[in-house]
Amino acid sequence: MKILLHTCCGPCATYPVTRLLSGSNEVNCFFYNPNIQGYREYIKRLKAVGEVCRHFNIALTIPERYEIEAWFRMVVGDLRDRCSRCYKDRIEKTALKAVEIGCDVFTSTLLISHKQDHEKIKNICEEAAKSNNIEFYYEDFRKGWREHWQMTDELDLYKQNYCGCLFSEYERFKNKEDCKE
Ligand code: SF4
For 5-29, how does the pLDDT look when each residue is reduced to its tens digit (9 = 90+)? Predict the structure, then answer.
């Protein structure tokens, strides 16, 4: 099977890539994440994904542009439910890309996170698969949570400390002592 793996960051890619490579599959990582702000943070996460791809000798697909303006326009109408729009955008683009480059299935590293809405992501993937006439491969990658941190340490990958958008950065740090106004 040729699999397109939507890849949010290096650490989250580790365990899913090992799982997906365990058959005779071909895995291609797709780094489509305009939700990552600011730009230097985006580049750090992209580089970590590049390290994972080099380590496993698999392909990496990167969009032509960092679509930051489009991302803000997409979420601005409903900031409270921004995560649903953010998930949908990334998954929908992954399904489209999978069809475009002739993959058999797609999936996402978002399915490894205990901090994301797992069921919502799974449902969005299923809908994107149906509407784009392609298969979605589901696996609860959360079971590899411990291994993914081990591999992250072994490969010495950059570990981000907030989800991605400015709002998540604010939520993460607003109560830290050195961030008090
Ligand atoms: S918190 Fe994470 S999933 Fe939600 S909108 Fe921000 S970057 Fe996207």
Answer: 999 999 999 999 999 998 889 999 9
CATH code for the domain in which residue 40 is found: 3.40.50.620
Q: Which domain holds residue 95?
A: 2-179
C-alpha 22 – ligand 1 centre gap (Å): 30
Is the CB of 34 within 6 Å of ligand 1? no
Q: Is 124 in the pocket of ligand 1 (CB under 6 A)?
A: no
**Does residue 165 have its Cβ closer than 6 Å to ligand 1?**
yes
Q: What is the pTM assigned to this prediction?
A: 0.96
| Strand segments (E) across 11-149 | 26-30, 59-61, 105-108, 135-136
Terminal alpha carbon distance of the chain: 53
Question: Which residue's CA lies nearest to atom 5 of ligand 1?
Answer: 83
Cis peptide upstream of residue 10 (ω within 30 degrees of 0): no
Q: How many domains does the chain have?
A: 1
How many residues are listed for the chain in this entry? Answer: 181
Please give the structure tokens belonging to residue 64.
């032509």
8 A C-beta contact, residue 159 and residue 49: no
